[in-house]
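hiii so um. not sure if this is the right channel but i have a protein structure encoded as tokens and i wanna go backwards to a sequence. like what aa goes where. can anyone help
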């Protein structure tokens, strides 16, 4: 192939790829619509409510698995699967700690993924070091601010260290997401932090936010979507690089 033929072929492949990706995303948008329309999780906890709440994330598990295969179970797909487990646990208030544990493990898998060679980044500029500092100041400041409210909870002995560990893991995840220099991954991590911040402020009676559930779930689904799409985009770019190397050889 000459240069013009190669360029036209690449454009056609990209169009085909993004069309297939859009079809893969239809279950996510459909399940989100069902969740917000029916709003079953706002009623009494049930397996049906848990299934409807977790369905959008499970559709993203299938998306990540489709593009990255079995190895993604130890990466973004695995993190999404753990997140779906957390969604199910949080339907029942008494399983809050279990749900938080699932999300903590999800952040751990995301962090490991962002350290992989596919996400290798060049040396960070001063602006990124500033972003890292801001993330850690926000995480640390939020935890210090929350501790007096956590101590008022009957399960304070468990919650204080558990929330501290969770904040540490999500800040590490966001820091490594920033390191990738990938906008979707970075924005997804930041929106995830915003969603969890809203949960913390409302659950422990720090402030009263109108339509809190709408804010929490909208930002949560959006964050997971951006992280999943960021991972798919990284896979597509990695495959494209391999094809170009093969053509040049």
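sure thing!! here u go:
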């Amino acid at each position: 192939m000459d240069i013009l033929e190669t360029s036209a072929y690449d454009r056609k492949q990209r169009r085909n790829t993004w069309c297939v990706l859009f079809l893969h995303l239809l279950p996510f948008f459909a399940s989100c619509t069902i969740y917000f329309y029916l709003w079953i999780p706002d009623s009494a906890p049930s397996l049906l409510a848990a299934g409807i709440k977790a369905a959008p994330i499970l559709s993203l598990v299938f998306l990540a698995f489709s593009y990255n295969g079995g190895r993604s179970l130890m990466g973004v797909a695995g993190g999404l699967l753990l997140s779906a487990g957390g969604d199910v646990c949080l339907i029942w208030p008494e399983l809050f700690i279990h749900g938080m544990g699932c999300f903590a493990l999800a952040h751990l898998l995301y962090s490991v993924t962002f350290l992989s060679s596919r996400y290798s980044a060049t040396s960070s500029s001063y602006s990124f070091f500033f972003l890292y500092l801001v993330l850690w100041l926000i995480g640390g400041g939020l935890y210090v601010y929350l501790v007096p409210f956590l101590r008022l909870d009957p399960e304070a002995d468990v919650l204080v260290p558990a929330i501290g560990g969770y904040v540490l893991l999500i800040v590490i995840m966001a820091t490594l997401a920033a390191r990738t220099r990938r906008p979707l991954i970075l924005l997804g991590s930041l929106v995830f932090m915003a969603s969890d911040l809203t949960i913390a402020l409302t659950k422990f009676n720090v402030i009263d936010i109108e339509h809190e559930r709408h804010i929490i779930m909208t930002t949560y689904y959006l964050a997971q979507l951006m992280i999943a799409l960021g991972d798919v985009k990284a896979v597509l770019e990695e495959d494209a690089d391999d094809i170009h190397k093969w053509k040049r050889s």
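oh and The radius of gyration is 20 Å.
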